[in-house]
Amino acid sequence: MSPRSASVNEELRRRSRDRILAATVELVSERGYEATTLADIAERAGSARGLVSYYFPGKRQLLQSAVHRLMHRTLEAALEREPRTEDGRERLARAIDAILGLAEERPVLMRTHMAGILQAEGFVQCPEQQRLAALLRDTVDRYGSEDVATDYPLLRALLMGAVFAVLLPGAPMPAARLRGELFQRYGLDWELGVPPGGGPPDGTRAMVPVSRAGAQSSPETRSKSSK
After folding, report:
1. pLDDT of residue 13
2. Is 122 left (phi over 0), alpha (psi -120 to 50) or beta?
3. Does the pLDDT at position 225 exceed 60?
4. In whole angstroms, what is the distance from residue 83 CA to residue 93 CA?
5. Do the beta carbons of residue 41 and residue 62 sit within 8 Å?
6. Helix, strand, or coil here: 95?
7. What is the pLDDT of residues 114-170, one digit of tens each?
8. DSSP letter string over 143-182?
9. What are the residue ranges of helices labelled H in the chain?
10. Distance (Å, whole) CA 181 – CA 201
11. pTM of the shown model
């Protein structure tokens, strides 16, 4: 039997890694972080325990990579679903809805992920996170940003803040209200993306135009421009 080619070996490693990441999402969603061991993940993924440690230095890093992979795939599916569109405002609305949707659909997983980011090791710069970042950067660019390097981190921070607010134990914010605030910030119509049932929540400010960089124009600026 001839040895496998480098490309075949690479594909097998990719599939093995993907199974481990998928198993991590499933088990942490079902059992929570503390009750999930690396041995449990390896068994669910059908992999050797040592292979998990070969790919990932620890459970916290593995979880962050697994959640970033889930977020990337969820965001990608939302952006590319039919009817496909190149409209930057629609794509930004879909991105906001996709991330808020994950907070509502997988609260245990996302709460654990947010808690891990705030720990000493902080944010893991893994390939999955880089793919997610590339999608969000592209979304900001298509929305019309004139300074993606500045506007992308701002969008990321706003989304992380909204997810934290949805998941805050004892004092969660309604996702629809947070959606309204984000849409207001970016001048997006409520009907874009995947709006929840009903109209904007009471108390949500009216949508206002924004510049290409995504910054809300002030009442003074709008007054001067109308003269």
Report:
1. 87
2. left
3. no
4. 14
5. yes
6. helix
7. 998 888 667 878 899 999 999 999 999 999 999 999 999 999 999 999 999 999 999
8. HT-S-HHHHHHHHHHHHHHHHHHHH-TTSPPPHHHHHHHH
9. 6-31, 38-45, 49-55, 59-80, 88-105, 107-117, 127-143, 148-167, 175-186, 219-225
10. 10
11. 0.84
